[in-house]
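Look over this today:
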Amino acid sequence: MGLKTLDAGNNLIYRAWHNIPGFFAKRNVTQQRYELDQFIATTFSSGACYYYVLDFLNLDKPMLVSPSIQSILGLDPQTATIQSLIERGHPDDIPFAAKAEETALSILKNEIGMDQVKNYKISYSGRMRVADGSYRLFNHQAIILDTDEHFGVARTLGIHTDISHLASGSNYTLSLLNLFGGESYLNIDVLNNPQPCITSSPSLFTQREMEIVRLLADGKTSADIGRLLNISPHTVKNHRKNILKKSDCKTTGQLVSKSVSEGLI
């Protein structure tokens, strides 16, 4: 069952995808081979997380998911579907998630251009029901893996990271972050901000600064970062000072919390 034939019904997420015609692929696309674990470790924030690969031409079938989905959400990795993930969403957060999805797809198609969709990461947060039945706050991040010859989207990689230790609730904003340091769309209030008013802005950090922020999030010291990036600890300290100033943060802990909760890492 592909997106074209899917009955959206009362499912707000499916309906959001239907509302952007021409965004998705019209035929099956061979999945490219990715070293997903290594890719995720260098592109997304660390922490308790699971990943899944969503095939929009086969939405009713089990997805490729990481084994950690069982311990985090209590779902069987062999049978987990996108519907089972959506059903884990907090009922009060689903309308926001649907609007965030629709807004993200609209910006990618109409503002950024379909030929550039692989250059961006979609990020927003919401609560999900975990294995013990309670709800925890997760950061949702997604990138586009595969497109057809017309740049229609066939497959995405999604990462859900538990950020309950960093924030008590969602800020209900959406960000589309350029993976290569170009202009991004940050902290969009999709529930109250008319889409024509949405504009891009330069990425907050340079690529080098983003490398340092990710390493700080992993608990690395300035000396560790210097060795890993082959730069002096003094240079790292200067970068850290500039990063804190740009982000309007006073401490590294505040920086990491803000970066993770806003999807910057």
Observations:
- The chain has a mean pLDDT of 85.
- Residues 12-197 form a domain with the Beta-Lactamase fold (CATH 3.30.450.20).
- The chain has nine helices and seven strands.
